[in-house]
Amino acid sequence: MSTLRLLSAAALLTVAASAHASSFIATTDAIVGTLKATTDLTSDATNSIRDNKIVRAARDDAASFVASEGSIRGVKLESALDFIRQQAPQLQASDAQLAQAILTL
């Protein structure tokens, strides 16, 4: 009787482990797929933003904005922020985050 219970317990653990592993794989695949789609969308938007003359011209204003913690807001930065928000309305970023992003382009 104890051998039967041991075999039953081993079989249940094997089934549970494989179900857990396949569930983990499916969840991981779903997350990776979503991140890839978001990255592709962001990458397309970023490429067009990165190559834009308005955004490139705003680098000095963005540096001043970041250095002054938002006190100095140049005209070129304002134009770039408007352009970015028009091109990528799905981005939910603050002015400071966008200014820092402009500096990294």
UniProtKB/TrEMBL annotation:
Molecular function via GO: helicase activity
InterPro entries, per the entry: CHP02448 (IPR012661)
Keywords, ordered alphabetically: ATP-binding, Helicase, Hydrolase, Nucleotide-binding, Signal
Signal sequence extent: 1-21
Heme is among the record's keywords: no
Protein name according to UniProt: Holliday junction resolvasome, helicase subunit
Organism of this sequence: Pseudomonas lundensis
